Amino acid sequence: MARKDSGHSLETRLISLLAALPFALVTAALLWLAVNQELAFMGRFLGSGFFWGCLGIFLLAAFALPTLFPHWLGMIWRGFIRLYHYWL
Predict the structure, then answer these.
(1) Of 53, 60, 47, 51, nearest to 21 (Cα)?
(2) Per-domain residue ranges for the chain?
(3) Which one of 18, 43, 44, 58 is least enclosed by Cβ atoms within 10 Å?
(4) How far is Cα 76 from Cα 24, in angstroms, rounded to an integer?
(5) For residues 62 and 20, is the Cβ–Cβ distance under 8 A?
(6) In Å, what is the CA distance from 24 to each residue of 7, 27, 34, 47, 49?
(7) Does residue 25 register a pLDDT over 90?
């Protein structure tokens, strides 16, 4: 019996990772800035390690789960839009 190919070869995953990089970079930066903005009211600040860790998690998810990652980013961006409309 032939094994069913999932369609996610290494080349496909690397291309998916490169395509996800700009979106993951912007999303991680916005999350980091939003959290730091809220923490600034308490006199605290998250270092750049949080940003790099968030970006690393996004890129790891993009490599490991190439079909689920765009859905996750879409959920985060819909949350950003809802918060934006809430504060206006």
Answers:
(1) 60
(2) 22-87
(3) 43
(4) 11
(5) yes
(6) 23, 5, 15, 18, 16
(7) yes
Q: How far apart are CA 41 and CA 22, in angstroms?
A: 30
- pTM here is 0.76
Cα separation, 31 vs 45, in Å, equals 13
Cα–Cα distance between 7 and 28 in angstroms, integer?
Answer: 28
Residues 42-81 have pLDDT tens digits of 888 888 999 999 999 998 988 888 888 889 889 999 998 9
Cα dihedral 36/43/85/66 (nearest 10): 20
Q: What is the DSSP string of the chain?
A: -PPPP-S--HHHHHHHHHHHHHHHHHHHHHHHHHHHHHHHTTT----HHHHHHHHHHHHHHHHH-TTTHHHHHHHHHHHHHHHHHHH-
